[in-house]
Design a protein that fits this description.
Layout lengths: L1 E4 L2 E7 L12 E9 L2 E5 L6 H4 L3 E5 L9 H4 L3 E2 L8 E3 L8 E4 L4 E4 L23 H8 L9 E4 L9 H8 L2
Parallel strand pairs: 4-5, 5-6, 9-10
Antiparallel strand pairs: 1-2, 2-3, 3-4, 7-8, 8-9
């Protein structure tokens, strides 16, 4: 577990369903935000015990299929009713959203920005979504207007320097 900024933590764990896909590795990344009310877990995989033993723990997901270990741990998953410290932002795939943490200027992104970059072309017309590169860029372009200092992909490493520039590069 590594602290990215005051109260914002990250760690990785092995995805139970990984299948040698070259676009994402066997380890996935999760995040946690300590608040005055407790802890918010983002796409949790094997959360460290020290995060889940103190106070109220809630889960928010970038995608409905990113529940990972939340159900196994018996943790409540917040849907559209997000904690006040988090706001939903656009993502590319149906059933997905990016999650903005304004107090940290941090953007948690799921499958729409793997490894903090653009999705592969073959994902544009897949079983999950239909569209062009222009459609993809248009859906995610509002993210560029956020003052992103931390770009936090759930597949890949966090971008802690020039995160806004990395986001703009990903969206062409």
């Amino acid at each position: 577990m590594h602290e990215l900024a005051g109260g914002l933590w990250t760690w990785t764990g092995r995805h139970p369903d990984w299948n040698d896909d070259p676009h994402w590795g066997p380890d996935v990344r999760s995040y946690a935000l300590r608040t005055d009310d407790g802890v918010i877990l983002f796409d949790p995989i094997e959360p460290p015990e020290e995060l889940t033993r103190d106070g109220i723990v809630e889960v928010v997901l970038t995608a409905e299929w990113h529940g990972r270990d939340a159900k196994k741990l018996g943790l409540p998953i917040r849907g559209d009713d997000l904690p006040p410290q988090v706001t939903a932002q656009p993502a590319f795939f149906p059933g997905e959203r990016s999650l903005w943490i304004p107090a940290q200027n941090a953007l948690v992104v799921g499958d729409s920005l793997p490894r903090a970059g653009a999705i592969p072309d073959e994902w544009l017309n897949s079983d999950w979504a239909k569209g062009t590169r222009d459609d993809y860029n248009a859906k995610l372009r509002p993210l560029v207007d956020l003052p992103v200092e931390l770009l936090l992909p759930t597949h890949g490493d966090p971008v802690t320097e020039d995160a806004g520039d990395a986001l703009r590069r990903a969206l062409g």
